[in-house]
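Researcher: Good morning. I'm working through a list of sequences from a screen, and I'd like to move beyond sequence-only analysis. For each chain I'm collecting a predicted structure so we can compare shapes side by side. This is the next one on the list. No need for commentary yet; just the structure.
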Amino acid sequence: MTSQSVSMLVRVHLSGRAPIRKTLPITQGEETEACVEPELELDPSYYERGTAARLRNHESLSGLDDAFDEIEQRADALLDDLMRVLKGLQNPAINTEKNPGGIMV
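Model: Good morning. Structure tokens for this chain:
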């Protein structure tokens, strides 16, 4: 809406001369029939195959916990190293006291 349109609407409402809106009639739509799903027949070994697949996957993925723990430990060690480097950059006096050449180890 343009600023003039907004201004006109505000003035009309503030003056008490706002038009009364007509309520719109509710139209009754056509009644639709519910969709019926077709009958499906699953083979008798459907559930057994699914549970066997889940068991296989559970067994093959069981070593992931150890792998994720190792990754987390490595990430923590890298973060600790990075924090030491950043602290050394902020406080160069600390580096020269521990390492007179200023070379970070």
